[in-house]
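Q: Here's a chain of 127 amino acids. Please give me its 3D structure as tokens.
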Amino acid sequence: MPVVAFTLLKGQPAALKTKLGHAVHLALENVGVSKADRFQRFLELDNENFNYDLHYPDPAEPRTDRFVLIEILFSVGISVKLNKRYCVMCLNICRLRGYLQTTLWLVFRKRPGKIGRLPMGTYFINS
């Protein structure tokens, strides 16, 4: 179960967040994640709480106030090859939907341990 967090500046239109959410999940589906396995959160921050360099690491164009940080938490066991495939797929889909590569920053994290399903919901159990 990948968990996706989008961090962006406050004031972005709801349609933009919907478009990004669909694009990122479509890319996940294309590397084998179930369509129903969708867990996303959007964190909107004020300027003083979301600091990023406009030019690091040497993008073709400076970042704008439409910059979005996308963090994806995968379970351990997802290969580097699959992460790379997902990254290319995600950037291509987002580019087709009007987002430039320099506007997005993808971060992959792997969660150690196992997932256990209990009657009250899903819990992360570290091994």
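Q: Can you summarize the key feature?
A: The radius of gyration is 15 Å.
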